Queue: 4 jobs
Job 1
Amino acid sequence: MNPKAPIDQQTMQTMKQEKLNDEIAPFLQDLKGKSDGFKVPEGYLEDMEEAVFARLKSSGDLGRPTMNLVKRPRLFPWTVRPRTAMALAAALALILTAVWFIRQPQAVQPAQFVSTELTEDDLESYVLENVQEFELEQLAALTAEKTSEPIEKVAPGTPKKNRSTSDEIHPDDLDKILDEMTDEELEQIL
Amino acid sequence: MDLLRSEQTFERGFRLLMSQYRERLYWHVRRMVQIHDDADDVLQNTFIKVYRGISQFEGKSKLYTWLYRIATNEALTHLQSQARHASSSLDDTANLLSNRLKADEWFDGDAVQAKLILAIAELPDKQKQVFNLRYYDEMPYEEMSQLLTTSVGALKASFHHATKKIEAAFLNYEG
């Protein structure tokens, strides 16, 4: 017998019967061969439609507009049902919102770049104008930062006397300045 | 189904639906409630509910699956109402059914067939459905699984338990 040959109706029925017989007791197999004892009045099933429509008429259900089936237009009739479409739209909105939030810091970057272009003088004048807004520790840190900066820039081996900034006064110059000052000026300082 | 979509052709479509499914649904209901008059009531109620609710049928399942579920619910409601009636009287459900079966002119089975019907009637609702679909309709488990939304394994287990209970009922009967 060719295993790929189609199975005819009778063979299929016999196979189903044999499979079922494996599952049930012999007495149930015997009973299955007989009628179950149920009978139906002649013409009962044919008259069923009239009986149902008579009851529908007496209950006033016949011709109710709710029975009129109209195909409701679907949002995406070629692919998905409305609920699925709404879920997809919600998911898309969430993704777009997430992308917008992720891209937010990149949008403010130019402003940060501008702030780095401020000169030291601008910063200094800002600090002086708003000195009351800063804590003492912050001012101290700014001063420390400012004083430490030149030291970092000095190349190793440079003579100490050349390391002074223009604001510092050499002891020799101090004597000279004091000599040049008038008595009134000296009194003001002291 | 297309005939049911227009008000002009709806009645013709509904009559066609009834003529197509009435026999299959009748035997399903009859094996659930056993007595012809009860099956007649249940089947008429089923078709009236289908008529009222057909506009809500969304076509997510097969039409027969939807009809089968409505018919099953109607049959179970009928059986529950009978059980309530039996509990309020001196008779129990099995005795009530036995007496009604004897009096039913549309049952001409012998004592063994009556015993089988009574044994099936004693089964829990789900096992009763599974047994009827497998034993009488010889429905494959895969198809039954879609109809009853139950796994094939669970259906096989239900059928096994049902046959064991029926065998036990027959042993008691013969003893």
Note: Chain B has two domains: 1-107, 109-175.
Job 2
Amino acid sequence: MNLMTEPTARFPSPYELSSPAGSEGWQKIYPYYLNFNSELKAEDEKKFWFCDSQHWPYPFKPFDVIGIDFAVKCLSQYNTRHLMVPPANGLEMRILNGYLYLSPVPVAPEKIPDRVPLFLERAGYYYQNWNRLLENWKKKISGVISEMESIKFEKLPDMVALDRVTSGSGLDNTQELLTNYDRSIQLCYTAWQYHFEFLNLGYAAYLDFFMFCKEHFPNIPDLAVARMVQGIDVELFRPDDELKKLARLAVELGVADALATGSVDQALAAVEQKPNGSKWLAAWKAAQDPWFNFTIGNGFYSRDKYWIEHLDIPLRFIRDYIKRVQKGETIERPTAALIAERDRISKEYAELLSGEARAAFEGKLGLARVVFPYVENHNFYIEHWFMGTFWRKMRELSRVLGDVGFWSDPDDMFYFGRNELRDILFDYASSWAAGVPPIGAKLLGKKIAERRKIIDALSTQPPQPALNEPPAVITEPFTIMLWGITSDTVKSWLKKATTSTGLTGMAASPGTVEGRARIVRSDADLEKIKEGEILVATVTAPAWAPVFGKIKAVVTDIGGMMSHAAIVCREYGLPAVTATGTATTTIKDGQMLRVDGSKGEVTILS
Amino acid sequence: MATSTSSAGNSGGDGARAQYVIPFEAAAAEPVARIGGKCAGLAALVGASAPVSPGFAVTTDAFLEMMAVDGLAKEIKGILARLDVNDVRNEAHVSQDIGEAIARRAMPSHIAAAIRSAYARLGTGSTVDAAVAVRSSGTAEDLPDASFAGQGDTYLSIVGGDTVVDKVKKCWASLYTARAISYRAQCRIGHLDVQMAVAVQVMVNARSAGVAMTLDPSNGDRSKIIIESTWGLGETLVSGEVTPDHFMIDKVMLMPITRRISVKDHELVSDPTTRAAVRCKIQGERRAQPSVTDDELQSIARVVKAIERHFGSPQDIEWAIDNTRTESGGVVILQSRPETVWSMKKTQSARANYGTMGVLDTLIAPLLPKK
């Protein structure tokens, strides 16, 4: 589906667009506040909305709305209520045809000056006490994760245990069931507040350094700025580093062949038979906590697969690494070389400046380096480790409810929103108390089927990149740095004919290569990737990093310099073009592409 | 070694021995007064470990001995006494007369022998004569504040010792072209105060050639390298008869930022049989193709960056790609001169906040009216 091919000044209105056949009634499966409502048409049409297909590339199941509700709200609160970011409040959100649309809320010009001293005080406090506050943050988030881990969902017993009688507790097991569910949701909410506690400030400091470089070194490549700031020992890359260590260890200990074939259980059993096998197995176990709390999805979907529950995934990556080690390749990231390169680049740009400009450069670079570890690592703690635990518990709950008849497929629970689920849980509790099967077991099957049909229908039509008229100026830092939405990218989405020969986007990671396209719409598609292909996706995830050893380049629909796709591609030296708007809908599987990550151009050669 | 500028010839005899030819790799310490600006530049490039085509300087010692033949200098002085700088035809006549005065006199044979001998050493094997460029290297050239670019003769693709000798003499004579005379008059430089050295250098088999500046000449931005290139020898670009391909490279990352590929109509190449430089029309796809590959761009950028670092100031460089050479990705540096425009200007050092204040400024900036 192409954008309009002649230059227009705006994108379509949400009220003009139709929904795909079979999806009628989709609005009812989402909360009222997330729909475009005809009574609010006049106001909504004045606002510019962009589609976040970077984090949410698939239509939402009702439960998964928790991700956008919490993430976007928490992002917003820090701009609007904590830090008082002078020109920017938060982001409004809506769902259209199953996809998320965001609209940055500006601050009225007359209110901006009053916010300045507040920002200086509040943001200043965090910048000046960053490392201490971050140490504390790690403790807080570890506490949240441990508590989440400790929650259990169990089937209600036929009879309360005797000790509830003899202890005089007076409470039944539904007490835990209902409390644990509410507590899970609350912990999730807390985790997302923590996610953004530092992130807005991190992006703002990076943006400050970035803009300074663009001003003093006109046309400096975005990559150069990122290289000066990016950390070397980044926790986000640790899971992949652990796999590499395990691969090398397997070769050193002589268990590589035992690992090479069979299911996870078969391979591990074969390793155990080998001398030194137990040594490798101990390392394998040790690496899992916490580093296998890592998803090849992005953490926002109930069906995202985590390594720790799908050990075949990390094992597959280890097997690929073993092959490369056996060929004599160096698979480890060259950290010494990366550090030397970072220092060289920083020094050479600094030397081009003098006096006050140089002092400002060093100051801004210094702050950007302080904040950057968090910018990269928060993703591991929240999207991977916390959300992995959360989804695991939710699936545990789903199996409990499935066991008592609500549904047969554990994925079906997620066709209900988190608040609808409270009713389902009370139905269970109440029916259990009454001594009858839960009502939902008889009735919900029909609803699940309806909703499945609706979401499947919504999945057939990729989303518009944006709605309504773009603003003259975009000021919200996330919108710029994370989503890559600047006035320029929006203009280029509007103006360019997405011709049959090429796309332009952000030059996210340098280099030029040619290869066959492989469209990846879900993690299931990852297995189809062949050596030397070019990955084309709405979004990529850091956990796809092991796949990056096979591919030649990455092209995405959306994403800025700070998107995970860009960060990982730079780390792995792969050319990447992000923020093309329509790569996954324009390019077809098997087409020959030329990707120029230095210029941000993708050419379809055949 | 002390140089002698007196007209008393001194081949042999007292302590200060004249040297008529000096190979570039031995010339790093020689002053411009002895080997001229161009040779001094080439010697300095060799000193900077830049890839340079081999060659030698014919020194001003040789030139001054020529000036002493049969009172040549005196005769020239006499002719110049008639010079009227406001009369173009007069200038032309003066120039012609001086030219004839030089042509009438033979180059001292010991000097010619020295040149032939140095030339022979440039040849490949014992029998194949090198094709060389014979270029004027004036002593007033390439001073930072006097842009004498384009003065003096240049002869390309010269083969054979006798021809080389002949062209050296012609370079000497080009000190007195009408244009040179006029220029010196305008700049108030004494005509007999300047000498001419000559650079004899193996011709670069230039598949492509061009210029590079280690800053952006459109705005003085020192974080950039600007490279312009065309097919064949770089003279077509320097003379302005061809619009070159244009590339902007980030100096720190060595990444290309912009490129403009032009349609290149013709090129100057060495004819394989005659080895003379001939002008050929470019046909077909090559006209609109980039005249350097991305790898070659990288190599050029790397080399010029190192040269700038060595000399400590922005440079204006002529280069060629000779893909019969394997070092430096085929890059050969022909000339490097200090850039003269932006290097003179004082750089502004703008004040900028950093820390929280800096972040605030950046967040507010999109709202401020554009300057």
Note: Chain A has 21 helices and twelve strands.
Job 3
Amino acid sequence: MTGLALLLLTAAIGHGLARWWRLPVIPVLLGLGMALSFSGLIEYSTGTDGSAHDPLVTAVELGLTFLVFASGIELNPHRFRRHQRSVLWIGAVQFLMAGALGFAVALGLGFDRLVAFYLGLAVSASSTLVGLRQLRMTRQAFEPFGRTVLGVLLLQDALMIVMIVVLSRSLEGPGAMAMALAATAGLAVAAFLMQRYLARPLVLRFKLDEETLLIGALALLFVFVGVAHQLGLPLIVGAFFAGFGLSRFPADGVLRGQLSSLSDFFLAIFFTALGALVLLPDATTLVQAFVLALLVVVITPPLVTIVAEWTGFSSRAAIESGLLLAQTSEYSLVLGLTGLALGHLTAEVFSLIALMAVLTMTLTPFVATDRVTRWLLPLHPLRHRIDTTGAPRGHVLILGFGSAGMWVVKPLRAEGYDLLVVDDDPVVIDQLQRAKIPCLRGDGSDEKTLAQAGAREARLIIASMRRVGDVEKVLRCVAGVPVVARVFEAEDADHIRRLGGIPVLNSEAAADAFMEWFRSRIAGRSEGATTAAV
Amino acid sequence: MFDEPFIRSLGLIVIAGALFALVARLIRMPAIVAYLIAGLVLGPLTGLVEISPTLSLISEVGIALLLFLVGLELSFDKIRDVGPVSVVAGLGQVVFTAIGGLLICWLLGFGLMEGLFLAVALTFSSTVVVVKLLDEKQELDSLYGRIAVGIFLVQDLVAIVILTFLTGLSAEGERTAGAILIGVARAFGGMALLLGAVLVAARFVMPRPLEWAARSPETLFIWSLTWCFLVVLGAHFLHLSLEIGAFLAGVSLAQLPYNEDLRRRVHPLMNFCIAVFFVSLGIRMELGAARMEWVTVVVLSLFVLLGNPLIFMWIIARMGYDERTSFFTSVTVAQISEFSFIFVGLGVSSGLVRVDILSLTALVGLVTIGLSSYMILYNRQLYEFCRRVGLLRMFRSPPAREEVETRKLRQGHVLIVGMNTLGRDLARRLTGAGETVLAIDTDPGKLRGLPCATLLGNVEYLTVLEEAGLSRARLVISALQIEATNDLLAFRCRSNGVPYAVHVIDLEQTDNLLEMDARYLMIPKVDGVKLQTRELQRRGFLSHSP
């Protein structure tokens, strides 16, 4: 109990510091775990090669199982079906290219081929937990860009699972690897069938209470883990497919709340205990960790940007995606742990992987920002290849077309205004060109784009932009021109007003429309109505 | 490096527990009984699982979390009024049951020392079993629930005193009576010290940091668990039980405004660990030779199942509690505790009693825990039956008062989830329109200053929606910008036949939400254009409404 309390206390400090410093919690927990280990406050009872009944090993083991199970539950292909192409291309290219470069650099650093392969894999995938946190903070998780990035992350998790299977049999020859892959495919098919035909009816028919539901889901987890063990696969492969088997709505939805309590607890002690596994690094390990971390931070953004833009992302969204994916994954740690357990990696190499994770994950909140994106935008080689219609004057400039753009354009056109629409989505630009509406592809908050669009000479600017910071930049750039900006939060509206803009509060409008419906349909008690405001 | 036997054992425990719990649900058997049977199958019947120290640790965590939850439910105010009855009834029952048990053991032919051990073992009731069942029934904060918890905590203290005494006895005269007395004094002193420290922390230390942490649910959750285990360690250091430490840790946080949300977050983790505890308890049962002594088992079990409640009922009725409260409280003590096994085990290891006394205790434990679970779950029906046949007249308790439903059930209200600008605006407008509104959010900061009732919690937990009265709501509105949670709410509303209005963040979602019978889709991006058009008209950019 003392060991557990110490781990929890460390995790509590880690959570507090992460919240205070606005950092992802994983690198902070890993760092504090390392500090515990280096200070000698905590140590594994029989080293890292084989230890029964060590609470730290148990913490790592249970945490690992829940981490993989929880990420399997999130792997609902339904969520990304409209972005399949982008997800597959970005995910696969980053995985292969970054992996190949990582392998080459690791060889250059003097590692043998097997270890270099592990290190290559460790830099090939990005962190789902860190990426999700960033997307939630910027409220972009459910935007098309966010969905694609999440899809990429989950695809890479699945690829890492496959690679862990391959590596677990790598020393036994191609036949054994093929057998293991076949067994994995069998498990995947079982999980798919369960996801498709079993999980939903079970949830709907039995209407289980929360306790039975939770214990049932955990039983399923252990059944898959047991089957994986019988098939000679790593236990986490079973955990991953058990999660995948429950990833379809409503099973994933009803379980998420129940499992989040267990995940929060086990992940907190998992990452802390994992940090405690790390040995005090010598100068060589530190240099190697820096080199590989640098590779991730420098190579991932351009790699992702190129592919993302090729699949239809705007330059800015493509750069943002690249920056968001510039860290190693929690699965890199899982991979390192598996390599350690299989005897493929030494404790020093595992420490190197953990240090790399701490460095790159800590950097993410500082790198994946709007400021860095803007700093990088001018360096984009294709950026100047934009469709331009000259710089008009006395026109109405619409920044951001979005889903409601046509409703904005129609009345203005009817009044006889000259219009110019600026949007960064190529699909939107294509639609506008077909509708013969003057348009310009580009970032509406960028000074050069605004200059090309004649923003300072516009009669009126209507901004519908994702971030209030973008509107702020427009306001600073076009003093004297009336700028109407649609925003959702009241504090954003206040901010726009203070800067001299004319805010339109979308949420207020939605509340107006709702109240109208409510008075007629609910307050009036005319039940049975199925009106939808679409 | 992985401890595969541990994962295998844990896996078997969870799988067997789930299978038996599913069957138990179909035949309305309490989950605890199902877990115990699962344990018997894995342990004494097949020998598939042996309990490792790590599994014991998970069980201990389960017990700590269960008592932590009880503490979170019961603030100091709630337990203050049941203090006297808990002390008198708790101590009274220990004395009377021990005397009665000793007498029965003597009649059954046991020697003095074995009779004494068995009698004391029969005295203690299981805090974990009762609290788990009361929690399932959501009656922890009922009057009888609070008295029961108070009594069990008193019994925990008595258990510590007895253990101190027993350790003195088993040390073969090395410890003097004075040393034993010092041990007893240390237990009470420790209790006072821990209580004082926890009270000071609850009043002066915890509120501000926890308020800061509360804006991040994960941070609050981890901080609270850490506090729980630190107090448990403190209790251990002061030679107090894990249960007392965890309970005090919970009580110290019960006054905070986020205790309900915290309870809901701790609950799933507790459910997992406590299931492991009960299955492990079944695995540990050493039934052995006791199966041959079924007459003794039946007599001792009947004494616990009937004698204990009778003694208790008599004591509580003397203290002025009405018939129903006395009956309900009494039914909770109709089983022996896991402490009984530890106690007899100590007797065996010190050579004071035979090994088969331990298996006898285990079998009595199994029978009484199993049957008393039914008695507690169906206490109302049992009470009505006993009253009808006149069994309760002899106690001459004050007549039962009308049962007062303490929890006010919300009905016909509008439930709004997500207090962003849209949610807060709707809460104000609907309240202004005379609707009864309940606003829900995970961030206490966003619930401040609203003119309606509020509830802190995450709607992904079914218990939050139950507390919010989802099934009785007139309308549910989600202003959230989290697609997965909106989908889940749509599913819950459809299952309960409650109309649902939802904020659409991405137009890709609309088909899915309409498929799930959402009555109204709020699309602020579209609605905003109308408001913008009015603004442009007002400023002279547009001349007429399009």
Note: The beta strands of chain B are 414-417, 437-441, 453-456, 475-478, 500-503, 520-522.
Job 4
Amino acid sequence: MNFDFSDDQKFLRDEARKFLEAQCTSAHVRAVLDDETMSHNDEVWQKIVEMGWLGAAIPEEFGGLGLGMLELCVIAEELGRVLAPVPFGSSAFFFAEAIKLAGTDEQKAEWLPKVADGSIVGCLATTEGPGALSASSVQATAKDGILSGTKVPVTDGDVATHAAVLAKEGSGTGIYIVALDQDGVSRKSLKTIEPTRSHAEIKFDGASAARLGQETGNGMSVLDRVMNRGAVLLAFEQLGGASRCLEMATEYAKERHAFGRPIGGNQAIKHKLADIYVKNEVARSNAYYGAWALSTDAAELPEAAAAARVAASEAFWFASKENIQTHGGMGFTWEVDCHLYYRRAKLLAVQAGSPAVWKEKLVSALEAKNAA
Amino acid sequence: MDFTDSTEEATFRAEANAFLSQHLQPKKGAATRSGNYLQRAKDWQKVKAENHFAQITWPKEIGGRGGSSMQQVIWNQEESKFDAPTGPFAIGLGMCVPTVIAFGSDEHKQRYVQKALFGEEIWCQLFSEPAAGSDVAGLKTKAVKDGDDWVINGQKVWTSGAHYSDYGIVLVRTDPDVPKHKGLTMFIIDMKQEGVDVRPIHQASGGSEFNEVYFTDVRIPDADRLGEPGMGWKVALVTLMNERLAVGGSPGPDWAEIMDYARSSGSMSDQAFRAKLADWYVAAQGYKLTKFRTQTALSKGETPGPENSIGKVITANHLQDICNSAIEMQDHYGIISDKDHAPADAIFQESFMWAPGLRIAGGTDEILKNIIAERVLGLPQDVRVDKDKPFSAF
């Protein structure tokens, strides 16, 4: 038993941390926050592309670094710590994983190298309205390579060049790869509670699209598998954010004085931060298990991914709001970074299905296991 | 990142499991405490020791296996699958005897270690007092030097197993004129000697597993002192650190047990229940997997630190919450604790009554959170009004 990352993976983590602390500062994040027309921070994005991280889990034969899912998890946590305002997750966690899982050999050869070298930016387009995604909530339709319908919101929909779109096909659903810069596609930027990331409403009207893979009608089951992988990777991103929130709150509690001593000497603050710590550790442990299940393609992946997502969503939510609380009035100013984490926590919690959805997936997976 | 056994680990696990299967029944629910539990515990301890499965990390010279912490973990995991009567020896072998090994003389080790290991003698730990629980350094039991002996007067409380213990380690005040932490000394005490009066405490849950222990002019030879006079607090910290290394199993019913009940009672179709079940699973996994991470650190030679405090904070509250929900799911019927009526052998009712004690014993929720905040996060200590003043000033 060895429930930890390897020395090489920890080295990658340390290097990534140093790199991002220098290249993706609060100012880089705020540049996107304060400029409505900015979909992402391209200066940061290009540096990340140069590092080759987008290809961490893409095989070398497809232009990637050929490392693995564990390395991608390590990178995800570091990006989460700095709230990187870039479409990394959309392209590497969702779009690329969809291609890897369901694409034909030609599709893998066509798309994966382009994800890896940043020449395309992928995103996932599934939901069309409020509420949990289900097969019956999908109205967008694909027929004979033509896609019509509307997807909203699409995370990184503004900056992406391509989308993997969930659409009705025949009596089932399919996932379709669509180039977003074509006549049949129009995009409208959306105002969201998370302005450091781009979001768009995308309308498809006679857009040309290619089905991912050759099997028809299996869109929801492919998406389910993609989501399990994305859930683990997002969990690491969430963990990074939650860890930073605890660090910020702890630092502030040591510096800020009231009644003649640091506020962190009061049990109300100490216990609050201890609670954050415990939730973060529960999230970390579940995320590590998810990483293991992902990297070994274990039978436990469905429940491991669900538990990782539920734990990480709860941890980041709790840490981000209690970080604001610990900062008092200052935590409620635009200039202090607490609210940036609060916003990102919410995006990550709902981006790939809300915790309620994943709790249900978890219990269904447990029922299936018990039934065996 | 590897959750599977290495070849050596798998071999050891198989060996452990085979041995356990030979001697014990698989566990169904909580371990059986009926029959002559104490004698069964002693017999089982002897069998383990004879076969080098007792205290796996202790050196072979003192009767252990000379094995790794990971092997101890594997053994604990396998043993917890069986109806193993280990209760009476947990404190002695997990906390008291390691303290004797660390601070005792060669004579002490010769006299006590084997007998404890082979189940012949049982130990208890006497720290807490009525006025000194969370603030155990504030204890009052006095020891006064008289010739070659120390004379002890005072009282301990919450002493688990004192009623069947042969020996104990006792923390007493030898110098009241210095700050409280500096005036303590640890001793080995013969629990059967004159002047030691054990009185059971009637627990809120109904049983009497712990006791008050009164000392009236109890004489302890100076030779039975563990560490120098005034060093008692440092010795106590070693005892408590060993407590952290002891890896226990689940204290009661968990998500799997309440899920079994839900399946049999039709509650699996209740959305609210399903959401809670998911939360319980995530917490239980969080606790279990965090233990594995700690064990990985142990196996790499790192010393587990105060991070271990998170275990009990999670599990005690978790247990209380699950048992509470299970009873409410049974509605009015849930109050029945008679095993002939109550589902699942009344484990939910039993643990519901035990859970409040678990949130207090071995470090209250609040103290554990203080420990996390102060020793892991580095936040300032609470204001301690008596900190550097002589004990006698209060």
Note: Chain A touches chain B through 50 residues (CB under 8 Å).
